Amino acid sequence: MAEVTTTNEILSGNAPRTNELRRFMRVFLGRKVVLVGVIIILVLIITALFAPQIAPHDPIKQNLRIALQSPSSEHLLGTDPLGRDILSRIIYGSRVSLAVGFIAVGVGGVLGMTLGLLAGYFGRIVDLLIMRFIDAMMAIPPLMLALVLGVSLGGGLNNVMIALGISLLPTYARLMRGQVLAVKQADYVKAGKVVGCSDFRIMFRHVFPNCLPPLIVLVTLNLGVAILSEASLSFLGLGISPPGAAWGAMVYDGYTYLMTNPLLSFAPGICIMLVVLAFNIVGDGLRDVLDPRLRGTI
Amino acid sequence: MTKKGKAALIRMVSLSLVFALLFSMVIAGCAPKEPVVEPTVPPSAPTEPAPAEPQKEGGVLKLGIALKPTVLGYAAEMRTYQEFLIGSTALEPLGRHDETGQMQPWLAESWESDADAKTITVKLKKGIKFHDGTDFNAEAVKWNMDEFLNYGRAEAKDLESTDVIDEYTVRLNLVTWNSSLMDALFYFVLMTSPTAFQENDKDWAANNPIGTGPFKFASWDRDVSVKFTKFEGYWQEGQPYLDAVEWHLIADAMTAMASFRAKEVDALVNLEPGIARQIEGMGADIKKLETGLGAMAIGFAGDSINSDSPFSDVRVRKALSFAVDSEEITESILFGYAVATNQWGVPGSWSFNPAVEKYAYNPEKAKQLLAEAGYPDGFTTKLTTLNSPMEVQIMTAVQGYLADVGIDAQMELVDTAHYREITNVASDPWDGLMLYRGRGDADVVTYMPRNFSSKGLLMVNGLITTDKIDKLLVDAAAASDFNTVKQIAFELQKEIYEEQCIITPLFVLTMPVAKYPHLHDEGFNKAQASLWTPESAWIEK
Amino acid sequence: MAGFVARRLVQSVIVLIMVSFIAFSFLHLLPGDAALVILGGEATQEEILNLRQELGLDQPMWVQYGRWFTNALQGNLGRSIFHRESVISVIAKRLPVTIYLGTLALLLSILISIPAGIISAVRRGHISDSIITVAANLGMAIPIFWLGILGIYFFSLKLGWLPVMGYTSPLDNFWLSTKQAIMPVICLAVIPLATLTRQTRSSMLEVIRQDYIRTARSKGLKEKTVITRHALKNAIIPVVTLLGLQARYLVGGSILVEQIFNIPGMGRLMVSSVFDKDFPIVQGCILVVAIAIILANLVIDLSYGYLDPRIRDD
Predict the structure, then answer these.
(1) Is the ipTM of this complex over 0.90?
(2) Quick check: helix, strand or coil at residue B219?
């Protein structure tokens, strides 16, 4: 009984957490590269939030008469084939790209973790069924899965996000199950069962939070993967609906003009690279903190 | 910050800079610094006393195309531009269009039609052989016509049967007189060897084009290439000049352009306008099609058939036509590789009616019409388009124009199969606006009824039809002289595009083909975009 | 051990059945059907119905699946709608291409990533470490199709060293084949290269800190010997695990790379078949790829089971 109370206290994040947080920040930001990554991500989030204030032009307002202009003081990165301001489109595109990242990872994460949690916690036949299903999905390459699923659902931003999310799902399920199996052996979970807590309560209140650290790392890394995959799907002909644009779609749209107007595809492409790089670095940084055995990777 | 940390940070930053620099170098490497100037033949060659006939024989012609065929040797299943183009390396039809769009005999010697008797009698050229050594004769023509008819192709709906009169004469018997049947059949039915078909089967025939053309089929490596070699027994004396023709099927348009630039192919067919613009000044010639024959027309249309749709109101449909600047789209987005039009076909073609209202770009007028129709603040609708780069770009521009007059069109992208399903006659009406893809040919009877007759097949599930249009289409088919047909065509254009505004047409593509100057008489876009005439092509050594 | 192998094999078969079922259900969500792709938009209702019947598309999904499944058990994956030949023979032409390029890419990434990872771990904090880690992270951040087209512009158009596109079997023309393979292989290798480098580096770093390495050092062994003899042996295990996973990414990468360099492999076949709604081919491709991936993992699992008896009881 006493143990359960203690666990609850720790999990609800009271007093003992302050030191933890300080240690976390110290280790996490200990390496300057991580700081650079964090700054890039912060800039991205601020850009996305304040896009209407930052963008010099309306991103979807077209003017064919000024199509494909080179950079000028009016249009810092020039204009696209429909005469829209590239800089403004990139600024607004940050919203879409960020949404693609978060929603795809959200879909994959929530579904995957739930499946993993169920499999790991209940074991036996539930575990067997779920994990064979997950194995089956793992046996289909993610891009292939996303392509088939995206085409099946019929393209468009929402469907691309869902397709990407589902293609990310298996990793979460596996990781979650592994963590659950490890945590299940811990005394406080056993104690919870003894005192008669419901399965549901034990799973979500006790098992789940303890599985989080490695999952956080995975989420961070996958945000980059999702943003990058959106570009690949655009290239394969599974784009999101105009006039709004994610960076990936912009890279592909501009790609036909690579020789005459390279900025059209380079500007969004470099944004993708920076952001994916930042998510990777931050993911690694988080891993350093959350999994001290691996401290020192990049 | 520790000293070490600082040093690490500086290193990171400078490294990123190095990478950025490397990238910009690559970018700079890609940007064209100066157009590649082809070494051309000096304008006058004073050392040569008289320009001798150039050596035309020999050489392998390599062509690039960013489309892939699915059938090459069975006319009844051949429908796409690329199938016709590649197929016509080895296959020939009975007739070919001349520059004015009139059908002229090719494998046929001559023909005679009799509107009252509902027959067309065709005399065939003699001494023509298929690649498998069998004779091209009346029996072969009958077999080809029968296959086409029995397959259920819409183009043959007015054909009743084909009779063999003698070895080199056939008679087509019509259900009802149709002034354009000749145009359709003599162009669509690419003649293939019946013997080859019977010795194998349909699937084999579809993969192995055995015709009368200047080149024999050699191999078809799906997604890679289709290869042909010279047919020594070709019926035109001395032709063809080339030893072989290789079609390279290239998935990606940019890769296709790069392979042309690297001279891995001599010509690049069906360029996207954006790509064509980049090829300009590369030392290559770009051949455009001016006639609209066999070319693709693009436009859009509302679901006028749904009585609760805003597009059931003709004022709204007229507003659509006023709202979009097709001239500007043609100039700015298509770089002039298309001809803007306000009706079926291209200006100057025989069925083009210059008296039809232009609907010149006038957003104020559009807003006014919308207000009259009860939409002073516009409305929200859907805009469905095919998910390929050019169509998406054009429809995005349309979406922008519509937004300017208050119509908020949410774009929806669909792939080819899905697009065909939602625009097929068997489907329920679509919702909102739909991309229109049609033919650019001067026409009344072959293609127009597909879209506008109540018995049509294409988009008719969503478009209104009127009795007047139906009647005109029937009359045009039944007319026996060209002037009547033309007159009816003019009336139809006016009714469909001015009075009813059923479709808002934008432009007809000029289907640009890029080629290097060493390729002569290449036979593309001569009058008809979807037919290649390779027999006279030759490569300068 | 035999029991373990048998258990894993049975599991693999169950997984394969699930794969085929997943693929089948996805494909039947696809809007638009193959009949219309073949017939074109102006098809009449009668034509559509006839063709649907001919292709068996008019049957309920479970009937189609049942039929496909029983045929598949007899080694018949059906007939391609577009290629007009059996799915097996279509795939048999494409699979070797993808395997050949994929294997080269994997070899290339192993040859570079392991030394790079070791160098960067051993010389942690030096300039070489920074270069390697930044490059590895960049490799994971570049859209592959972009890298491909840049490669084409630089190496084919500017320098004229390599052909733009195409594939030739090395048995037909080794020199041309190699020239054509260079860029696709590099593009394919980028992601495995980056992943493996990062993994080698981090497991190396972990191992270096272990007591036995310190002991080895303190015994006065040369650093080179310590690294190659002692550290690498242990550090390589997690890298090998990761190697098994690369099959998935190589196939994913081949979808993009084959599109750019116009290579007639499985990736290109997949993409065109998905858009053509050529179900039998897509279904067959997914199954064949899944078999390859499952086999790769099985081999790795088995070798682990052999190395570490504890895993057998999992």
Answers:
(1) no
(2) strand
CATH topology for C99-286? MetI-like fold (1.10.3720)
A147–C274 C-beta distance less than 8 A: yes
Domain range annotation of chain A: 31-51+86-294
The full set of domains in chain B, from first to last, is 60-210 (3.90.76.10), 296-509 (3.10.105.10)
Q: How far is CA B527 from the centre of its chain?
A: 12
Q: Does C300 touch chain A (CB under 8 A)?
A: no
CATH number of A31-51+86-294: 1.10.3720.10
A132 closest CB neighbour out of C11, C144, C271: C11
C19 touches chain A (CB under 8 A): yes
And the tokens for C35? Answer: 């009949």
Contact C264, C94 (CB under 8 A): yes
Of B262, B415, B424, nearest to C164 by CB-CB distance is B262
Question: Is A257 an 8 Å CB contact of chain B?
Answer: yes
pLDDT band at C308 (very low <50, low <70, confident <90, very high): low
Phi, then psi, of C85 in degrees rounded to 5: -150, 175
Q: Locate the domains of chain C by residue range.
A: 99-286
Q: How far apart are CA B425 and CA B447, in angstroms?
A: 15
Contacts with C125 from chain B: Cβ below 8 Å: 4, 8
pLDDT at position B45, please? 42
Alpha carbon of C243: minimum distance to chain B alpha carbons (Å): 28
Q: Is residue C233 scored above 60 in pLDDT?
A: yes
Closest chain B C-alpha to A140 CA, distance in angstroms: 23
- pLDDT tens figures, A39-77: 999 999 999 999 999 999 999 889 998 988 889 999 999
- Which range, of A115-124, B481-490, C38-47, averages the lowest pLDDT? C38-47
Q: What b/e readout covers B428-446, taking b as 16+ CB neighbours within 10 angstroms? A: ebbbbbbbbbbbbbbbbbb
